[in-house]
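Give me the fold.
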Amino acid sequence: MKSILAGLVTVVALSLGADEVLHLLKVYPPWGEPMYQPGLNLLALSYRAVFTVIGGYVTAKLATHSPMRYVAIATGIGLVLGVLGVVAAISVGGLGPLWYPIAIAVTGPPCTLLGGALHVRRSAAPIPSGA
């Protein structure tokens, strides 16, 4: 289970870190203000997708056995969190476009699974000999 937590923490830390940098550089509006610009939301979605792939990779790499089983569990947890994000966005309103949290919830599972699969494939690949 440590591998699952490590993967989730990786995604959250990288995402919030990138957000903070973009807020400090004034690319994003100040914290607490809604961000409706499609380009900025696509930027956030893009790096979050990459960070989610990395999180899946970390989960698989740190799994003691059956890495894709741990990745599948992390995927389920991420999906639940993503759906809760959509519910929160609907409930609170005014946070930005509704398509953004929906896109996060929809893209998270395949990105997590891709990261896990990349680790499994990489660890199964034969090591080239002296070529």
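The mean pLDDT is 94.
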